[in-house]
């Protein structure tokens, strides 16, 4: 731990400046190159919880579980680049998506996006601290409480001074360590557990669904909900948006395609630990499947490889936790202070950096409190995910359709969320007429999700065809059936209600928005910088450094 966090702190000190730049603190000035950007995007989304969840999916659903988890999670990253190019075109110097929504609509849409990301990032921080604390409690003489405090202090120390610049540069080192660990650890555990013969000797431990590569259980409980969620995370999450605004505009496609491959391969590989445990007949310690990964490591790895495994997990949670800290700092700096307190023209960059650093300290303290208490964060996480799902169509439409209004945006999100909650938590009896109504909306949601994916890559005409055909084709099978899967059904209902509301209210509006105004209302908070004499570590060639 000392070596890992000490090395990260050393990197942060090496790139620190006597006078930090507010825009650099939030997005690295929007000039970060391909290698560091791709590594940062990959590392940010390979977080400890995703590793644990992929292994849990493998243990629960068999070999198709990690594939559903990793493949659709990777698709989320891939979907960013077609929409990301449009977002950067209309707002080339923005810092947050919420900031762009403020320029496009006003305060209510900005606060919806900013608020959901504050909750989501604090929950993510908490989850990562819990994962790290549990690992330390299981593999070291230290307690869970000592573990979460040590990890929180290590992450805060190297992120606090240089903000986003420190986050992306340490991500580069962390992703190399994680990928190297995965390449070594998974084969070692596989052969230590029995090698290829395990698939024959352990087949009796699997149910027919777990042994089926095309398992319907895995698809409807893991794959389909993830397909519905990928757009929500791609569009609504500030940690992704921050990297979108940081990378050089001409490198967006290459960066996110590379991150897609890196994330998918790593997470599917880690998920195979759960599959190996399933075939080997391993029972999770204390009946908790979250213990599978450290349990498999402790069982099959020697001291040296166990240290490598430890670095892999600590690296995964650190790369995501520092991204959450910088995302929260950007929201308070740009959205709260920069636009709502001081105003764009009167914001003081030095005050902004101070606010960002205070935000990080408060966020870590809040995450430590939640991690150390017995609070259930799952319901909050579900709520945030639903809000992002309800935001997807209004956000995307706001970048392409000049008639979308603030009323259409806000009403779509509120009604989408209101429709999601009773379906997801079964507050109404879905076995009768309400179930059919829910299924109709969920079936429409299938067309909405696939139509928006098609729109990103192929445009409006193809999107309308795909959305219409998939809705009509799935209706005979989905209506009367989907309500039996409340997680999937609730997400699809949120998409469809939000989309229909936004479209109807937009069609009633007549005022057209000039997208050129977004460039004027967003942009740098610092004065135009002067040419530096020393090369920037984030751009060693110096081509983009000013």
Automatic annotation (TrEMBL):
Residues 526-546 are annotated as: Disordered. Coiled coil: none annotated. PROSITE patterns: NA_SOLUT_SYMP_3. It catalyses: L-proline(in) + Na(+)(in) = L-proline(out) + Na(+)(out). The chain crosses the membrane at residues 24-47, 67-84, 111-136, 142-161, 173-199, 219-236, 256-280, 292-314, 354-371, 377-400, 407-427, 433-455, 462-482, 488-509. GO terms for cellular component: plasma membrane. It is found in: Cell membrane. One of its GO terms (molecular function) is symporter activity. It is a multi-pass membrane protein. GO terms for biological process: sodium ion transport. InterPro entries: Na/Glc_symporter_sf, Na/solute_symporter, Sodium:Solute_Symporter. Keywords: Cell membrane, Ion transport, Membrane, Sodium, Sodium transport, Symport, Transmembrane, Transmembrane helix, Transport. Pfam families: SSF. Belongs to the sodium:solute symporter (SSF) (TC 2.A.21) family. This is Sodium:solute symporter family protein. It comes from Nocardia speluncae.
């Amino acid at each position: 731990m000392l070596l890992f966090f000490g090395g990260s702190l050393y990197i942060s000190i090496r790139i620190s400046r006597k006078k930090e730049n507010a825009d650099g603190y939030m997005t690295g000035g929007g000039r970060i190159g391909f290698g560091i950007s791709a590594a940062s995007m990959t590392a940010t989304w390979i977080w400890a919880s995703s590793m644990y969840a992929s292994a849990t999916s493998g243990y629960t659903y068999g070999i198709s579980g990690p594939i559903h988890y990793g493949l659709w999670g990777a698709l989320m990253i891939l979907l960013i680049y077609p929409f990301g190019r449009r977002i950067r075109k209309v707002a080339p110097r923005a810092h947050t998506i919420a900031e762009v929504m403020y320029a496009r609509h006003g305060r209510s849409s900005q606060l919806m996006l900013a608020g959901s990301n504050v909750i989501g990032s604090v929950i993510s921080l908490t989850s990562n601290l819990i994962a790290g604390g549990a690992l330390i409690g299981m593999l070291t003489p230290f307690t869970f409480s000592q573990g979460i405090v040590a990890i929180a202090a290590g992450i805060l120390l190297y992120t606090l001074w240089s903000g986003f610049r420190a986050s992306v540069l340490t991500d580069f080192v962390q992703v190399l360590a994680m990928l190297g660990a995965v390449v070594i650890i998974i084969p070692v555990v596989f052969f230590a557990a029995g090698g290829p013969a395990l698939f024959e000797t352990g087949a009796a431990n699997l149910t027919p669904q777990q042994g089926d590569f095309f398992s319907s259980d895995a698809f409807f409980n893991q794959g389909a909900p993830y397909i519905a969620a990928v757009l929500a995370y791609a569009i609504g999450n500030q940690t992704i948006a921050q990297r979108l605004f940081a990378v050089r505009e001409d490198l967006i496609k290459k960066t996110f395609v590379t991150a897609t491959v890196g994330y998918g391969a790593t997470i599917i590989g880690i998920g195979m630990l759960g599959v190996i445990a399933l075939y080997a007949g391993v029972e999770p310690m204390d009946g908790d499947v979250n213990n599978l990964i450290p349990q498999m490591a402790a069982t099959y790895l020697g001291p040296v490889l166990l240290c490598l495994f430890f670095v892999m997990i600590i690296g995964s949670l650190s790369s995501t936790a520092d991204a959450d800290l910088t995302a929260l700092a950007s929201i308070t700096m740009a959205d709260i202070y920069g636009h709502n307190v001081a105003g764009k023209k009167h914001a003081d960059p030095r005050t902004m950096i101070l606010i960002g650093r205070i935000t990080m300290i408060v966020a870590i303290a809040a995450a430590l409190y939640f991690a150390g208490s017995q609070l259930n964060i799952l319901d909050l996480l579900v709520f945030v995910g639903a809000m992002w799902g309800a935001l997807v169509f209004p956000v995307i439409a706001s970048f392409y359709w000049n008639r979308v209004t603030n009323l259409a945006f806000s009403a779509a999100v509120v009604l989408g969320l209101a429709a999601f909650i009773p379906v997801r938590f079964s507050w109404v009896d879905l076995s009768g007429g309400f179930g059919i109504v829910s299924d109709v909306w969920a079936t429409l949601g299938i067309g909405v999700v696939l139509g928006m994916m098609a729109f990103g890559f192929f445009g409006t005409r193809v999107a309308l065809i795909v959305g219409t055909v998939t809705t009509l084709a799935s209706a005979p099978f989905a209506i009367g059936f989907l309500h039996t899967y409340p997680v999937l059904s609730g997400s699809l209902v949120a998409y469809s209600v939000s989309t229909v509301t936004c479209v109807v209210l937009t069609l009633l509006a007549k005022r057209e928005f000039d997208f050129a105004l977004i460039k004027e209302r967003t942009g740098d908070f610092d004065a135009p910088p002067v040419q530096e004499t020393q090369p920037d570590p984030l751009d060693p060639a110096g081509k983009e450094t000013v």
